[in-house]
Amino acid sequence: MSGRDTRQRILDTSLELFNRHGEVNVTTNQIAEELDISPGNLHYHFKRKSDIVRHLFEAFNTEMADILIDPGERLLELEDLWLYLHLLFETIGRYRFIYRDINDLLERYEALRRPFGRLLQRQHSTAASYCASLVRSGVLLLDELDQRTLVDHIVMTITYWIQFSEIDPACRERDGDILARAIYQVISLAIPYMREPERSHARNLALSYL
Amino acid sequence: MSGRDTRQRILDTSLELFNRHGEVNVTTNQIAEELDISPGNLHYHFKRKSDIVRHLFEAFNTEMADILIDPGERLLELEDLWLYLHLLFETIGRYRFIYRDINDLLERYEALRRPFGRLLQRQHSTAASYCASLVRSGVLLLDELDQRTLVDHIVMTITYWIQFSEIDPACRERDGDILARAIYQVISLAIPYMREPERSHARNLALSYL
Q1: What is the nearest CA distance from B195 to chain A, expressed in angstroms?
Q2: The whole model's pTM is what?
Q3: Does residue B169 have a cis peptide bond before it, meaning omega lies within 30 degrees of 0?
Q4: What are the pLDDT digits (tens) for B133-191?
Q5: How far apart (Å, rounded) are the C-alpha atoms in residues A207 and B21?
Q6: Across the interface, do A103 and B22 touch by the CB < 8 Å criterion?
Q7: Which alpha helices (DSSP H) does B22-71 contain, by range?
């Protein structure tokens, strides 16, 4: 097996173990053991666990940058929102160790603070653009204060919903498809600000996904 | 100093260090050092760090139980909500290490899963009772689906808002009083479902706190 393959396999297995147990609970020795390679071989590719974390975070950040694209002047429909949120949560789900204990991760890996802060800013501005586009097309009725508050709610729900659904007994009992529920929760924040018939349409669309 | 005093001081100092650095990053040796007592003395009172965590969690849980009281048939006013949320966030803030990395904490301390799950259920049912009371008094206009969704949003915001405000650059720049902002965020979830004049009243009340 080539060095390049080994390197990628280390990253893949680390991601899997981090997602399953939480990054803080996984050691490089456990990663090597899972891969059936020596700790020295792993060390040859990544000096410290923090190097693995940094690489995974960069891969995540690149994927997110491809999703968080400002819709600009384009007039949006509800279905655009749905697709956008689907891609977003799908990516967050694949790298869920990052969001699982994000506050602790940023405490321990100072180098991630700036890029994660920029990612959140990007999420704020993209959410604001989506809202502004839906206000322009008349679907959403929002003044400036409501819009800022709504954007805060959206970014927080994107950041924490998957975590919440893992620990909340009501969600665990009820929600079959966590991804669909996450999208529903975000859309539902905007529903009370929609005009008819989009409001009823959004509710029905949301319900069909649950 | 009596044993009882030492025991309480260990709990107080642990809470302070856990809140500041995250529970996972604090060792019993660091707690002993901060208190200027020997590790053996600490060990005499608490065999493992998990015993300290359990005691702090129980204290938190008892305080929360005193706050999460079902309003029953009482007709509520907006100010009741405000006071309730103030007490809730104030307590969460004092024990913020629990919420800071709640998913990881529940992964590592299996014994906390059940009581924390019950606490979330209690929060769901209390939030549902508050909503139902405001629906009965005509302040909130909600059907059953909207109410369930709103309750989910409320419980998630209570669980994660303080954490979110610590890592989100927009919140860090803007929010002077994190407690007031947290209350505003929860109330703002219900505002679009309010009838007038309560809706305008709630907005003004909310703004006066920011």
Answers
A1: 13
A2: 0.90
A3: no
A4: 889 888 899 988 899 999 999 999 999 998 899 888 888 777 778 888 899 899 999 99
A5: 42
A6: yes
A7: 28-35, 39-45, 49-67
